[in-house]
Amino acid sequence: MRINITDFDALIIVDMQNDFMPGGALPVPDGDKIVDSLNRYIDLFSQKGSPVYFTRDWHPEDHISFKGYGGIWPPHCVQNTEGAQFHPELKIPSDNKFIISKGVSREFDAYSGFQGTVLDDLLKERGIKRIFVGGVATDYCVKNTVLGGLNLGYQVFVLEDGIKGVDVNEGDSERAVEVMKNKGAVIINAEDIR
Ligand code: VGL
Ligand code: ZN
């Protein structure tokens, strides 16, 4: 496949935060192994003048997704904590980048970067037609962001070499990739894009 990045393209990096990295509160195995790959995508989009959107989980400390508050997850990505910061080696461009916080109020969770955020408005405002999605976790927030983007009418590309899953049940990530494909997402690697 040969994909040229144009003015209608945006990169979306999902939840590359300390708590989702090995040693964090809700670790995605090898989550840190995709940082270099994502940095190359970030460089490419930045060089082309295309925008990069970074989603982040940004939960209050009594969030409903947390065990003890009605949810299934250990507390993670609590607002303004170290665990909620982006991986220190992730290259956040100085301009043409946007931070999208989700799951910010106690009563609502959001696996999709579009849920309860202005992401769709920001993309539409700039005439973005195609989104390229990487990050964690393949089987939760990446999957839901990809499906959300498809539902909103974007052409969606999933960065196979820039995603990692948690696999609470064995095979969850593989199945998530199948679902994304079946709904119309295109799975690509760095060599497909320039
Ligand atoms: C996520 C579980 C809970 C994710 C967020 O980023 O995939 N997973 N909150
Ligand atoms: Zn969360």
UniProtKB/TrEMBL annotation:
> Which Enzyme Commission number(s) are listed?
3.5.1.19
**Domain Isochorismatase-like per the UniProt entry, residue ranges:** 10-192
Check the UniProt entry and state the signal peptide residues, or none. Answer: none
Any single GO molecular-function term of the entry would be:
metal ion binding
Q: In which pathway does it act?
A: Cofactor biosynthesis; nicotinate biosynthesis; nicotinate from nicotinamide: step 1/1
**Enzyme class name:** hydrolase
What is the superkingdom listed in this entry's lineage?
Bacteria
Pfam family of the protein (one): Isochorismatase
Cite the entry's keywords alphabetically.
Hydrolase, Metal-binding, Pyridine nucleotide biosynthesis
Report the record's Gene Ontology biological process terms.
pyridine nucleotide biosynthetic process
Does the entry feature the keyword Hydrolase, yes or no?
yes
| Family named by the database record | Belongs to the isochorismatase family.
Q: Which NCBIfam families match?
A: PRK11609.1
Name-wise, this protein is nicotinamidase
**Naturally occurring in which organism (per UniProt):** Persephonella marina (strain DSM 14350 / EX-H1)
Lineage, please? Bacteria, Pseudomonadati, Aquificota, Aquificia, Aquificales
